[in-house]
Write a structure and sequence with these properties.
- Belongs to the bacterial ribosomal protein bL32 family.
- One of its GO terms (cellular component) is large ribosomal subunit.
- Keywords: Ribonucleoprotein, Ribosomal protein.
- InterPro entries: Ribosomal_bL32, Ribosomal_bL32_bact, Ribosomal_zn-bd.
- There is one protein chain.
- The chain is of the alpha+beta class.
- It has a domain at about 25-59.
- Helix content is about 15%, strand content about 15%.
- It contains one helix and four strands; from the N terminus they run αββββ.
- A two-stranded antiparallel ribbon has the order 1-2. A two-stranded antiparallel sheet has the order 3-4.
- The relative contact order is 0.13.
């Protein structure tokens, strides 16, 4: 079992964890529909990079 050689201070622990936070998702606007969506993901209407990839129901 691993045993630490010396105590890690609150400051040092905080410095290590400072890079662990999540960043906000990048949002893009589709060229065709103008709908906002996450980068590299298709819109709920089924469009990706201005082309319709998936047919959706017209509810």
């Amino acid at each position: 079992m691993a045993v630490q050689k010396s105590k890690v201070t609150r400051s040092r622990r905080g410095m290590r964890r400072s890079h662990d936070s999540l960043s906000k998702a990048t949002i893009s606007t589709d060229e065709t529909t103008g709908e906002r969506h996450r980068r590299h993901q298709m819109t709920p209407d089924g469009f990706y990079k201005g082309r319709q990839i998936v047919e959706t129901n017209g509810d």
